[in-house]
Amino acid sequence: MLITMSDKEIQRLAVLQDVRDHRITQVRAAEILNLSTRQITRLLQKLNQDGVSGLAHASRGQPGHRRHDDLLKSKCLSIISEHLLGFGPTLAHEKLSSMFDLNIPIETVRRWMTANDLWIPRFKRLKRPYQPRYNRDCFGELIQIDGSYHDWFEGRATKCCLLVYIDDATGKLLHLRFCEAETTFDYMLSTRAYI
């Protein structure tokens, strides 16, 4: 029989075997394991009575007491796949509660949907490929226009917008114009002055 034990339980077993073989005392074992001598006595009795399996946690391998039964799980998943396909876990949880009177925690719904491929978490989704836009090769091939609001005159005048014409190939500033706001009319005036 295979016994699953944690590192802490394995360390307890080694110390208790040393106590049983009279290499260390129960008081020293209690200091090592940070337990009381009464607890060491109880663990030794458990080791003598049940063997190594007596030191393993008794509820290990047992289903959790808050676990949902498989019938409820299959019912929820069938409802989600038939009526709520394409919904995220949050909305599916809300609809299960309001329409079908199934009050299941949202994280449980999320876990079930992820396990049955009804929902893919954001970090596992394939990223959309974005093709980079490289700078143009020749001067004047592409002119970028942008407006920048700032207190350009450092309080000596009202805040205004600077319209800038930038060559994409070289990054040179081709035309600059201050205006009150970034409007279509101001862009037309700046474009006429640039041309």
TrEMBL record:
Pfam families: HTH_28. It comes from the Bacteria. InterPro entries: Homeodomain-like_sf, InsJ-like_HTH. Residues 11-61 form the Insertion element IS150 protein InsJ-like helix-turn-helix domain. This is Helix-turn-helix domain-containing protein.
